[in-house]
Amino acid sequence: MNGSPDLGVLLRPRPASPLVEVEDERFGRHGVRLLVKRDDLVHPELPGNKWRKLAPNLRAAVEGGFPGVVTFGGAYSNHLRATAAAGRLLGMETVGIVRGDELADRPLNASLARCAADGMRLCFVTRSQYRRKAEPQERARLLEQARAGSSYVVPEGGSNALALEGCAELGRELRGVSDVVAVACGTGGTLAGLAAGLGPGQRALGVPVLAGEFLGAEIRSLQEAAFGAPAGDWSLAEGFHHGGYARVPARLEAFAADFEQRHGFAVERVYVAKLLWALAALTESGAFPAGTAVTAVVTGRP
Ligand SMILES: *Cc1c(COP(=O)(O)O)cnc(C)c1O
């Protein structure tokens, strides 16, 4: 596998993703500068934070001689899709353990069909099995059921210590660039790594896209595992989940479509739209003093 030409292309360090200043009067009239870090352009097939998190894990899987990679996700998981694409590029077997055994008897949705087309073997498990996948015994049972007992295990959402190292590189690319660097959060792994890579005087701001109250503790324990201690200056801006994961109420849809019209790039709805909405709302409410430069990380594309 080490001789595969795609290995180098996929895992080689890539040039920094573009950073672009955006002219938008909703920010400008408050004296706030808005920049976008186009991390959706970091890799043609594994956009944004999915590439940042997966690349160091795939390198570890290849170097460790593992026969394949197994990971976990819901029916619409961007992480499953990215892992499947990586498997195709690397010529590596991938297995996806998918939440919801009822899905096994239905036609695959577009996201899972993409995974399957990329060669991922899908294994559907009950919601209660899925919920307990972090418990060692249940995990062993799941891996056996998926015939993936000897595969390299990447956790749900791809957030582990190596993933945080990959996201710290995103922070390093933004050193000295702005006062605040903001990112949408699912598992919080991207924020946890990003914060560690930023320079002195910069702070990271996370916008959770799911309702829930454990994310702060989760981020602290991810940083503990990756860096041995809390790292960087970060906080969460709560209250912008718009009803929960993947909920896109009409006013958020209108905001995102309008943002695309004004600024000419596609706004991913599940994460990036909520981030941009939150930054506009925080700016409007005076949360950023005049003179603040804010960078929004565009973590993916539709
Ligand atoms: C997966 C994903 C996220 C969430 O990243 P976490 O590290 O899990 O917080 C953010 N944005 C996009 C576009 C994603 O696909």
UniProtKB/TrEMBL annotation:
UniProt KW keywords: Pyridoxal phosphate
Pfam families per UniProt: PALP (PF00291)
GO biological process: alpha-amino acid metabolic process
Required cofactor names: pyridoxal 5'-phosphate
Residues the record marks as active site: 77 (nucleophile)
Domain Tryptophan synthase beta chain-like PALP: 18-300
Positions where N6-(pyridoxal phosphate)lysine occurs in the chain: 50
Database matches in InterPro entries: ACCD_DCysDesulf, TrpB-like_PALP, TrpB-like_PALP_sf
Domain of life: Bacteria
GO molecular function ontology, one term from the record: D-cysteine desulfhydrase activity
PANTHER family to which the protein is assigned, alphabetical: 1-AMINOCYCLOPROPANE-1-CARBOXYLATE DEAMINASE-RELATED
Protein family membership: Belongs to the ACC deaminase/D-cysteine desulfhydrase family.
Record's protein name: 1-aminocyclopropane-1-carboxylate deaminase
Annotated organism of origin: Streptomyces roseus
